[in-house]
Amino acid sequence: MSDRATFKVFLIQVRADNVASLHERECIMEVAGLGPDQVDFVNLATQPLGPEERYADADLVMIGGSASHSVVNDDPFTEELVATVRRIVDRRQPLLGSCWGHQFIARALGGEVVTDVARAEVGLVEVQATPAGRADPVFGALPERYPVLMGHHDHVVRLPAGCQELAFSGTCRNQAFTLEGHPVYGTQFHCELLPEQLVARLTMFRQYMPDDDEFEALKAAMRPTPDAGRIMGRLIDLIRDA
Question: What is the rounded (10 degree) CA torsion for 115, 120, 126, 130?
Fold first, then answer.
């Protein structure tokens, strides 16, 4: 394993709630094994993206989730973030999207995202690897089936040209993808969360699961998700070794 002590992540957040914004950063640091000085961030819900120099030298740019915004809608930052994603991809800078970030990368590169409450997934869900997933340098180390943590109403129905589906669930396709020939990945599931962290996140946003009995059932169904928890670390190590 490569030394991660000098690895730098720039996190693009879309979090209207400051508590959730901090929680997301803490989860990334815990799962990836990084320190606070290794994760810089900007929260587009409260501030502009700022100069490109701030993130141009990051080892990995990550776009996180959002409870207050939908990728299918345009926000004041949408046009600039689309252009930013395309520049990051063009210069082959490593890029990872989780949940909302996964959807936004797909949209920015020409894919299609829809709101579909009937296919919403919240809690523990099992996904299955595709043949491309089993051959991928990041996802290939995972088993054919593994549990992940979800919380979404929108999902990617069409991947951009050049992208490969890496995993799917019984409810939604395109649970993970990569852009062929580029260090670009997206996961519809929260690759930065541990089960107890998802429970904490959903406690902040009970609109995803307002029924008390359903929420208690979700908590009772939680179990470890070690394979999904390896994704960020494996990607970081591959970037370090490149």
Answer: -20
Host domain of residue 160 = 9-241
Catalytic residues, which ones?
A: 99, 190, 192
Tally of structural domains, the chain: 1
Strands 121-129 and 145-152: antiparallel
Distances (CA, A) of 1 to 4, 192, 193, 232: 9, 19, 21, 13
Can you tell me which residue has the tokens 């996802």?
A: 139
Task: Determine the Cα–Cα distance for residues 65 and 86; give it in Å rounded to an integer.
Answer: 19
3-state secondary structure 204-220: HCHHHCCCHHHHHHHHH
pLDDT in tens, 78-114: 999 999 999 999 999 999 999 999 999 999 999 999 9
> What confidence tens digit (pLDDT) does each residue in 107-137 have?
999 999 999 999 999 999 999 999 999 999 9
CB atoms within 10 A of CB 131: 10
